[in-house]
Amino acid sequence: MRLSNSLAVLAALLISGGDAFVTRPGAFPPLVRGAAALKAHDLSSDKFTVGVLGDLHIDPRFMEDYEVGRDQWVNILNQHKETHSGNVALVSLGDLGESKSVRPTETNELFAGTTECHEMAAAFLGSFGVPYEVVGGNHDLEGIDEFDTDAANLEMFLRVHNKPTPQFIRQIADKTLLVGLTSTVFRDAKYTSHEVTIDAAQLAWFEQVVKDHPAEDGWKLFVFTHAPPNGSGLRVLQENHVVNGCCWLNHSNEAECRKFIELVREHRCIKAWFSGHFHLGQDYQDSITFPTIDPKDGPYPNRGSCVFAQTSVMRKGTSRDTRQQSRLIRGDKEGFQICTVDHKNGGSVRVDATITYRGDDNEIGVYAHDDVAYKHDKFFKVYQPSAGDDLHEPDDALVQFDDEMIMDKPITKETVAWWYMDCGRVLGMLNGNLIEYDKSTLAPLGLVVGADELLNKRIAVINSGEETGCFISYDEGMEGADCGTVQEAREQAVLLIDDEAGTVTVVQPNEDGSYWRKIVRNKMIRMKEVRRERAAKALAAALMQDKEAKVVSSWGPYTTTSGTAKKTGVTGVTTNLATPNGATTSK
Fold it and tell me: Where does the secretion signal sit in this chain (predicted)?
């Protein structure tokens, strides 16, 4: 009943003007091959058009925006099919379904990642009249009540969308490829399930693709992933994706996280990279970043020959900044345009940037307009340090010191500063938070200390190694090195000084040497913990009818500098607070 009713509702909403509604994605095969490709497309032509849809988060209760957006897109795509020799396609950037129950009075089952969700999404994407491709986002394997494993959920995703593999490659015009990579981890996520993880097999495949299609042979690749890569320079959300450690592809794996931008820098066939994930609009200039800029405007960004573009959302209820927009790419042998399709403004098309090729391995981008900003938009802007280059000094917030650093003023919300640790890691402050930045790209990685703990304290960085000069290596395989052997980094301690309370807090790094806290855990684990607490509350209510029962959770492992663990209690949470005279009191 659930599936047939949902599809019936979708079909009823999308059928208009006698247009046929395609209910199976196979009607538009995601990868047109052989003779069929020659009939459908003129691959000798250099002209092409691609529609790019951001996070859909389809909810069968609220289909009006999808109906309107689809009709706007059909008009645009039909026009381009006539002028571009059929070289027209659609790409969805994933997160296809609403990540909550769409029938809350009947079930708590999440809609995202279910068979019902993906069949509805496939029907919707198949109704635009052009071939479609799709990559999976962080919510697309969220069918946790229907499937026991990521592998089973992924198999359904691929089958429903007629995808032979999680990744895709499609030739859209002469020596022009569309390439996509899918997130394949949800239940098995080591940290937050909202991280977008490209598995090792896809990453190896992608590296081979860019090697096999070099810029010097005239190849041009347009890449599509749900989240952007580290180093893209796109606007991100500090209050969400930065603090939770899910901004970038493979965010929690340092080497893999940096691998994508390294491939971009090395292989100049990669001309553009489109992503969604942030639910932010396309009116900001930093929703598009260029591979090079005028030296008078700042340091060289080191992004190869690639333009990065953020894609917004179609439905009002999923937008973080009220925008409802999609991307349109129009290209030929001279370059390409990145445009906005504004769904709140009748599907009007606005050129945002024009990119012109300069030979095979360079391109120049020009913005078509300044920021179109609202008063609340500054909330979404995250400061990123600038290290400068041969022509530019580092930005004024860089704190440089030779030995130790002790700040003379307490931290406020307005404090902006950053510095290099001896090990090469980069820490800095913004909006009262201490954040770690990537040492290569200076992109934000994650929260180290929150404003709740940092405000009104001073920060110090001091030497903490033994006086004999013992240094600690952060490289693997050096665990048995003798003290006194000089390694890569001087051992240092980051301290929070509370002058009023007379306390000093040591900010210990993680075991891998990083500082940002992987504090958001796998969603599957968290949901099970909530269920256990719910069961405990029910039992407590039954057993303690005359009392107001308090239910708390206890977690491990517990971290201490002691070599012996004798206690597991968390003072004030799972145990009572100690009073000065040694007695205890409930709180």
Answer: 1-20
- Closest by Cα among 115, 113, 175, 177 to 144: 113
Smallest CA-to-CA distance from 417 within 399, 433, 395, 435 is with 399
d(CA 254, CA 444): 12
Residues with pLDDT less than 50, the chain: 1-39, 238, 376-377, 379-380, 468-486, 577-587
Residues linked to residue 289 through DSSP beta bridges, in sequence order: 308
Three-state DSSP at 212 gives helix
The pair of three-digit structure tokens given for residue 149, joined into one six-digit string = 């494993």
Residue 80: which of 125, 49, 121, 113 has the closest Cα?
A: 49
Nearest one of 320, 329, 343 to 52, comparing CA atoms? 329
Question: Which pLDDT does position 564 carry in this prediction?
Answer: 54
Q: Are 29 and 35 in contact (CB under 8 A)?
A: no
AA identity, residue 117: C
What pLDDT is stored for residue 352 in this prediction? 94
The two tokens of residue 207 are 């590296």
What gap in Å lies between CA 147 and CA 154, rounded to an integer? 9
pLDDT, tens only, 496-514: 999 999 999 999 998 889 9
pLDDT of amino acid 237: 56
* 222: helix, strand or coil: strand
Q: Which amino acid is at 18?
A: G
Burial class (CB in 10 A: 0-12, 13-18, 19+), 329: buried
* Rounded Cα distance, 244 and 138, in Å: 13
Place of tokens 């977008």: 196
Residues 177, 170 contacting (CB under 8 angstroms): yes
Length of the chain measured in residues: 587
- Over residues 281-311, the pLDDT tens digits come to 888 878 899 998 878 778 888 999 999 999 9
For residue 575, give the DSSP letter: B
What does the pLDDT read at residue 200?
96
Q: What phi and psi values does residue 178 have, to the nearest 5 degrees?
A: -100, 130
- Per-residue model confidence (pLDDT) at position 289: 92
Q: Which helix (H) or strand (E) covers residue 4, if one does?
A: helix 2-14
Report pLDDT for 410: 95
